[in-house]
Amino acid sequence: MKSRAAVAFAPGKPLEIVEIDVAPPKAGEVLVKITHTGVCHTDAFTLSGDDPEGIFPAVLGHEGGGVVVEVGEGVTTLKPGDHVIPLYTAECGKCKFCLSGKTNLCQAVRATQGKGLMPDGTTRFSYQGKPIYHYMGTSTFSEYTVVPEISLAKIDEQAPLEKVCLLGCGVTTGIGAVHNTAKVEAGATVAVFGLGGIGLAVIQGAVQAKAGRILAIDTNPAKFELAREMGATDVINPKDHAKPVQEVIVEMTDGGVDYSFECIGNVDVMRAALECCHKGWGESIIIGVAGAGKEISTRPFQLVTGRVWRGSAFGGVKGRTQLPGMVQQAMRGEIRLDPFITHTLPLERINEAFDLMHEGKSIRTVIHF
Ligand code: NAD
Ligand code: AHE
Ligand code: ZN
Ligand code: ZN
């Protein structure tokens, strides 16, 4: 079938809106009509050429919501008309990772997903007879996309797809990192570095966890108003201080924070986020995605003296099991999505969403088809 899609033909180039061909779903696959998709910084990261797994031409996008159109052979858990959120972290329920009880990082389709292919090693997308690659197993920048059954969370049909699409990445990642990865407890002091969609979702999670103090850090002061509105108790612009921001935070918090979250993808900030943690117990969670070749560093003494470095992918959330419940929470107002949606645009104007992000003017732009 034909599908309107925003195609990344080459790194560093704007997306092109073209009509691609989408092949029918094979066994274990599902054809989904995407109605809405957010634009996450990770889409921009991959488009920039910094992603070691970046592959072109590809249909990017991984923060979408839509409706099942057709199911392939053997698909039993979904049917046409079901409302779904595509998952870049699948949940097969059978692999060593799914059965471990220790991680959400199902590996059932991860190897082919990282090569821009469906699990059988081929692509369902083409343009003018040439293959177009998938992205993160989701490719939500296409009106029609094909996704493995195990990479789809079935959600309440009453849920507004134009909002709950944000649970496909940003909001779930931030809230989940607080509850599943850090396990922030009531009264804790938390520092959040980077106040985009991910950082604001961390703030929301920290408020849910009844954190006592939430320090919000960004080099763009335009981000502070919304951060405060979401629940930040202190805002810090590192540019306002002569000394390193970790020293500023340690002084402000009687020795450091209980938990910090890096929501930028900057390895220098990752170091600051670790080093602002309290001696003996402070934990720093890396959420930001750093470019090819980047490495983190600190004095090992920081860890010897009790600070902990962790990472979090998709907030540690098991998508098929847990996302439907988070959608219900959003419908009950227990998870706020509205503050994240600063812009809405039609697919044809998707490049403006990237511009707004790079200019620091948006939190999330939701694209409609
Ligand atoms: P965003 O661009 O909306 O927000 C980033 C924020 O960081 C901006 O407000 C920017 O002003 C701020 N910032 C930039 N440099 C800074 C610095 N040196 N000091 C302080 N603040 C600085 O991005 P986003 O969509 O919120 O994504 C944030 C990061 O999280 C990206 O790296 C993205 O790839 C990653 N991410 C990871 C996961 C995961 O599962 N681990 C999921 C989603 C996004
Ligand atoms: N492909 C990159 C890494 C990208 C990355 O870290 N992705 C995050 C999700 S970002 C969502 O906005 C993630 O969940 N990773 C776990 C996984 O299995 O991909 C690289 O460095 O190669
Ligand atoms: Zn994302
Ligand atoms: Zn699995």
Automatic annotation (TrEMBL):
Cleavable signal peptide: none
Family: Belongs to the zinc-containing alcohol dehydrogenase family. Class-III subfamily.
Species: Dyella mobilis
Superkingdom: Bacteria
Function: Has high formaldehyde dehydrogenase activity in the presence of glutathione and catalyzes the oxidation of normal alcohols in a reaction that is not GSH-dependent. In addition, hemithiolacetals other than those formed from GSH, including omega-thiol fatty acids, also are substrates. Also acts as a S-nitroso-glutathione reductase by catalyzing the NADH-dependent reduction of S-nitrosoglutathione.
InterPro entries attached to this UniProt entry: ADH-like_C, ADH-like_N, ADH_3, ADH_Zn_CS, ER, GroES-like_sf, NAD(P)-bd_dom_sf
Sorted UniProt keywords: Metal-binding, NAD, Oxidoreductase, Zinc
First-level EC class: oxidoreductase
Protein name: S-(hydroxymethyl)glutathione dehydrogenase
Sequence ranges assigned to domain Enoyl reductase (ER) in this UniProt record: 12-367
Names of required cofactors: Zn(2+)
Cited CDD domains: alcohol_DH_class_III
Catalyzed chemical reaction(s): a primary alcohol + NAD(+) = an aldehyde + NADH + H(+); a secondary alcohol + NAD(+) = a ketone + NADH + H(+); S-nitrosoglutathione + NADH + H(+) = S-(hydroxysulfenamide)glutathione + NAD(+); S-(hydroxymethyl)glutathione + NAD(+) = S-formylglutathione + NADH + H(+)
SUPFAM superfamilies referenced in this protein's UniProt entry, alphabetically: GroES-like, NAD(P)-binding Rossmann-fold domains
Pfam family, any one: ADH_N
Record SMART domains: PKS_ER
Enzyme Commission identifier(s): 1.1.1.284
